[in-house]
Specification:
The structure is a single chain. This protein is α/β, with parallel strands linked by helices. 38% of the residues lie in helices and 15% in strands. The chain has seven helices and seven strands, in the order ββααβααβββαβαα. Helix 2 runs parallel beside helix 6. The two termini are 20 Å apart.
């Protein structure tokens, strides 16, 4: 059976393959899927190359949260080398069904910063919708970080003004945190990147959709871009 045009591969970037349907998501007021978030996390990893920083793909963050076998999780976690990372970003989704691909209705981001010994959860909803899920990831991840880090919700997280931009807020906040870290942000152990979050406004988030779309199209135009 022939594949639909929506399934057409348009870009291979690092280990991420984007399809035509992903462009349609970015073009409209739509909820971001795993592939777009994985792509942009991979892009940030390339933009801020450092063994100190780990941006975890959504599929791996989901498995950390929902893995039914703690014994097998150890073999899964060890290659991430969490104990030597200084900054870890994990996308959080409220899907709890391991049989449902692309499930869930809300994204947020959990950030571990070693210098401050803290996990900070940034949730763009007004009701901290993903607090339970973020705490689950925190509890599972903590033993592998070789730290005694505390968990905190960040009340100053910029809030979305619609029901579909949560994923873009995750990407915008992740970019701010990476930029902060790259500019010697570890000197701000008390305040972290919080003052920089004012950059993540509703208008900036709206613009970021177009920025990511332009980024993808630019990469598509480069030689050998299609997987």
């Amino acid at each position: 059976m022939a594949k639909s045009k929506a399934d057409e591969k348009i870009l291979g970037y690092n280990d991420v393959v984007l399809r035509r349907s992903d462009l349609d998501i970015l073009n409209g007021p739509n909820y971001l899927n795993d592939r777009i978030i994985e792509f942009y996390f991979s892009y940030l990893s390339s933009s801020f190359p450092s063994d100190d920083i780990l941006l975890v793909p959504p599929s791996i963050a989901f498995w950390i949260k929902e893995c039914p076998d703690p014994a097998s999780l150890k073999d899964f976690m060890e290659p991430l080398h969490l104990s030597r990372r200084k900054l870890i970003l994990l996308p959080i989704n409220d899907n709890s069904d391991v049989c449902m691909a692309e499930g869930g209705i809300h994204w947020s981001v959990l950030a571990f910063e070693r210098n401050s010994n803290v996990f900070v959860h940034h949730d763009s909803s007004y009701g901290f919708m993903n607090e339970y899920h973020a705490k689950q990831v925190y509890k599972v991840t903590l033993p592998y970080t070789a730290s005694s880090a505390i968990y905190k919700e960040c009340p100053g997280t910029p809030k979305q003004v619609n029901g579909y931009d949560c994923g873009v807020y995750v990407l915008a906040i992740a970019r701010v945190i990476c930029q902060w870290y790259a500019s010697s942000g570890t000197q701000d152990a008390d305040t972290l990147w919080f003052s920089h979050l004012e950059q993540v406004s509703p208008s900036a988030v709206s613009t970021m959709r177009n920025e990511i779309l332009g980024l993808i199209k630019g990469l598509m135009a480069a030689p050998k871009s299609v997987a």
